[in-house]
Specification:
The protein is mainly alpha-helical and 88 residues long. It has a domain of 50 residues. Helix content is 64%, strand content 0%. The longest helix has 18 residues. The protein starts with a helix and ends in a 17-residue tail after the last helix.
Length: 88
């Protein structure tokens, strides 16, 4: 039982420390936004991947980087409307 409590406390610590690791109340839309933003950041951070995308799209690296940064604002569209019963 002690090991189980220790694992849950470690998970709670990681979830509070890192924004993208999720938590029990995370919605599907929020999870998708974190995943997309993390992917875009990885593409921008790895120069070889950025070059590969630029070659495939026949664009310059700077244009691809700009487009990926622009996509990070709303990678999955606007947030869905919450039901009225959740506002209580």
């Amino acid at each position: 039982m002690g090991d189980r409590y220790n694992i849950f406390s470690q998970m709670e610590h990681l979830q509070s420390k890192y924004n993208g690791t999720g938590h029990a109340d995370l919605t599907k839309w929020e999870w998708m936004v974190h995943t997309h933003r993390d992917s875009y950041a990885s593409y921008i951070g790895h120069g070889d991947l950025l070059s590969h995308i630029a070659i495939c799209e026949n664009e310059s690296r700077a244009r691809v980087q700009f487009n990926l940064l622009k996509k990070m604002f709303h990678p999955c569209g606007p947030p869905p409307q919450k039901p009225k019963w959740m506002d209580m």
